[in-house]
Structure formats: C-alpha cells, structure tokens
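does this look right to u?? adenosine-5'-diphosphate version
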Amino acid sequence: HMEMYINLITGADLQEYHLIVLRDRTEEEQANQMKNEFVSIVSHELRTPLASILGFVEILLNREVKPEKAKKYMETIHREANRLSNLINDFLDLQRMESGKQTYTFVPFDLRAIVSDVAMQWDGKQEHHVYSELPEHTALVRADQDRVTQVMHNLISNAVKYSPGTDRVDVRLREDAGNWLVEVQDYGLGIPDEAKDKMFSKFYRVDNSDRRQIGGTGLGLAIVREILNDLGGEITFESELGQGSTFIVRLPKLTVPVLDDHIVVIED
Ligand code: ADP
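got this back:
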C-alpha cells in the first residue's frame, strides 16, 4: 500500500520544483486491520457470554423458576463466566509475555508427568480418546511447569476441538538429539496452506465454513509460541487439509549425572 503526493515547492534558488513523496503504508494498514479484528473478536467474545449471563440472572431474579431449571440456568451462567474469565486471562497473559514482563520459575522436572496429566484431563472429552506414548526413562527439562502445562492444554484442546467427528488424539513424547519433542497429533480438519504462516499470530483464526461454529479467540497458539520462545524451546507443525495436524513442541533436554538410579540435580 503506497501513498503518493506531488507538491509544488520553491527552492532556495527561487526555482519551482515538483516534490514527489512516496509513503509505504503497509505496516500502518496491517496494524489497523489487526486492531479492527481485535475489536470485532473482543466485542463478540465478550458480549455473547455476557448477554447470556445477564439474561439468565434476570430470569432467576424476576420469575418463579423450578429448582431443576434454576440449576440448568446456573450451570450456563457458570460456563459462560468461565469463558469470559479464560478470555481475559489469555489476553492478559499474552500482553505480559509480549511486553517482557512475564516472570518464569525455572525448575528441573520430568516432562512425562505433565504430558500424561494433561492428556488424561482431555481423555473422554468431546468423544475423543487421548492416547499418550511416553518413554520409560525420566524426560528431564528445566522449565516453568505451569507454563508448560498451559502449552499442553492449548495444543491438546485444539486437537480435540478441531477434529469433530473423529475419536482420537495421539500425544507422543520422544527424544531427538539434545531435545525432548512432544507431538500432538489429530486426524481432523487440518490447516489450509494459505493459513500456515499466520497460525501463531494473535487473534488469527482460520475462517473456513467447516470451523465457523467452533468457539475461540485466536490467542491460544500465540501464547504457546511466546512461552516456548521464553523457555528456549520451539513450536512447529505439519498439517494437511482434511487429514489432520501434528503440533511439535521442542524443549532442550536437561542432562544431569545419574548415580544408582538417583537423579542428582545441579542447580546453577
Ligand atoms: P482459537 O482456537 O482460539 O481460534 P488458536 O490460536 O489456538 O485460537 O488457533 C488459531 C487457529 O488455528 C484456529 O482458529 C484454528 O482454525 C486453527 N487451528 C489450531 N489448531 C488446530 C488444529 N489442531 N487443527 C486444525 N486447525 C487448528
């Protein structure tokens, strides 16, 4: 997006000159477009749950409602309030990470524990079995446990969410040179080629008819990328439209001396 002006100016020599000004507005336009998307997503994502919370609260306050029905309404209120709270938390997390204000607690831990724990929490959700394949030996990393848990939640929830009509997600933890890799594989919608380089941009969502009904904010993968950058890791993916996707997390291995099956962790 270029903008061009032509001005007539008088030079120091009193001659008249045409001054041609070219201005590249690409970045400005992109920033504007991001802002517009942000406003429309936030207003939709905030207003929809708020409208239903307000609606049900008003019914409960102003009408006689049978106890079973009242419980249903309160469950909806609870669910929608949770959605709001998640959106706000994601938004604030990302803001903090982008501005470099996020603090991380680096501790040595066994990645197997987090991977199997999060896989188990998603097992059985939305008709999916989440199978995990783990190594027999400790998978040590030095990272922030809460943030790695958040990464696993975001990836496994996407795998479940974007594979309607299928019934399995595979999570594998394996070694690769100096790293641990966690692969989250689904057999669902997949990612169109033209979307592939935008997947980790904040607020980006694939706008295909097959996924318009699936709720989300486009913040999940942006958060995953920020966390892994900050932890010295990496996120990549492979995907084919209609076949499924595999998201791959890479975290550097922590190597420590092992004595008689006891792990000696040397803090730096
Ligand atoms: P959200 O799920 O809230 O839209 P994300 O940042 O997690 O946000 O994902 C961005 C977009 O990437 C999603 O809108 C979705 O279309 C696509 N996507 C993410 N994970 C998958 C997946 N496993 N399979 C297919 N599409 C995916």
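The first strand starts at residue 2 and ends at 10. idk if thats expected tbh
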